[in-house]
Protein: Esterase
Amino acid sequence: MQAFPNTSPALVGHTTFHDVISGRNGAVYRIFIYCPPGDAPEQGWPVLYMTDGNAVIGTAVDVMRAQASYPSGTNVGYGVVVTIGYPLDAAYDPLRRSWDLSPPPGQTYPPFYENSPVVKTGGAEEFLGFIEEQIKPLVEATHPIDRSRQALFGHSFGGLFVLYSFFTSPSAFTTWIAASPSIYWEDRVIDQFYPSFAAVPKTRDNARLFLSCGEYETDKLAPFQLGASDEAERLEQKKVTLNDVNAVELVERLNGLPGQPIRAQFEIHLGENHMSLLPVAVNRAIQNAFAVRTL
Structure:
């Protein structure tokens, strides 16, 4: 069989990555940055920061490039995408994201794999500090950024991190996007951060929060799960996670705050499960973070 005459790695256009050591914990993070070609707008580029950087950078850039070239038909303009990941080839680092994306105080769990470290949670404060103290300044030193149009996206534990960041640092971003946030996690530990936020919700002007989940994260099983050996177990787990119920309840609470400091909304994506939701949610994040006209 004839081989290809040459082989080169496939690169995502106008995207670079940079390994950065956290001043908070000494760990190395891989930061992927997409910057559109051409001159920035006078006020700078809008910017979207995303957790689970390795898993989302390719989708995010392709979604941006496909839609921003036709803004009158898509309502999507160009902007900078910054995804925060880890120095590995896999989509996820389960051990590190468990720590980085979960609210304090955290707990300790058995290892994911034999002969691997125990799993610790509770590092969200440290991770948010890393973004605010190191990543944002690095991005703004090398790219013209419109600080009034900064967005944060996360999925699953990442969505939980978005909510933690929103409740504890509500002026850090204007647009907050939490896809399938694990609100149930550790007996709803996220709830302990809501009262202080609600008492004095210091959000930015025009702040918006978008929550979502897949159709098969509700009380419905996906067709391929019906009749499977773990069907009963999955149905019991759904009574714990309650992704749609918890998100709707939070939206109602936020929209009922005096003066409506945040506009919150919830969306169910038909035909999607917890993991298949990710590319759909990334697309929606691009649409919300870089909307030409906001309604």
Observations:
- The chain has ten helices and ten strands.
- Strands lie at 15-21, 28-34, 45-50, 80-85, 108-109, 119-120, 145-155, 175-179, 208-214, 263-269.
- The two ends are 56 Å apart (CA to CA).
- The chain has a mean pLDDT of 96.
